[in-house]
Amino acid sequence: MTDLSDPAPSELAAPSDPAALSDLSDLFDLSTERLSLHLLTVEEGRRIVDVAPGEQDVWAEDFPMQDDRDGVKGFLGAAEAGHDAGPFGCYRIDRAAPDGAAIGTIGFYGPPDEQGQVMFGYGLVPGARGSGYATEALAALVAFCRSHDGVRTMVADTEAGNTASQRVLDKTGFALVKEEGDMCFYRLDATAG
């Protein structure tokens, strides 16, 4: 796994230069036993939003889902406005075997805020659910956050009826802190565990 605690976001190339960001994105890729989390470039994000895979892309049959496209749109909007999220951007979740296919996305709503808080979002295609991939991917980002001095708190939310997502958050150490309407809100202290 790459040590991502060294480069400060201000030291990274501005997202308005997709070629420069493309050169840097591989520096922030994370690997787990069964997955590769690839930090998206602007160009890769556009292909996902447009559902237009390039010849180098290997996508699962039902990738990208609408939730993937919505999350990537947020990343692209910030990048196009000149906001450099550095390693706190959007990652494509690629299954390592048997095919290396993209099976979902996971990422941050942006870099840590003034209080050191980051928020996660994630999703998998239906064919990849139930295999522990979401838990494995989220655990990798939690570990990254724990190694980064700027992160003090991690948060996520899910619909009350999404018990699978709630299990993912529970398994990665998040605690349910509030239920409001049809939403559940979770929190994890970066120094816990």
From TrEMBL:
Report which superkingdom the organism of origin falls in. Bacteria
Q: Which GO terms describe its molecular function?
A: protein N-terminal-serine acetyltransferase activity; protein-N-terminal-alanine acetyltransferase activity
Q: Which Pfam families does this chain map to? A: Acetyltransf_3
In this chain the N-acetyltransferase domain maps to 40-191
UniProt keyword terms in alphabetical order: Transferase
Do you know which PROSITE patterns this protein is assigned to? GNAT
> Which Gene3D superfamilies has this protein been placed in?
3.40.630.30
A single GO cellular-component term on record: cytoplasm
The record, for PANTHER family, names: N-ACETYLTRANSFERASE DOMAIN-CONTAINING PROTEIN (PTHR43441:SF6), RIBOSOMAL-PROTEIN-SERINE ACETYLTRANSFERASE (PTHR43441)
Protein's name according to its UniProt entry: GCN5-related N-acetyltransferase
Species, as recorded: Catenulispora acidiphila (strain DSM 44928 / JCM 14897 / NBRC 102108 / NRRL B-24433 / ID139908)
In the record, what lineage is assigned to the organism producing the protein? Bacteria, Bacillati, Actinomycetota, Actinomycetes, Catenulisporales
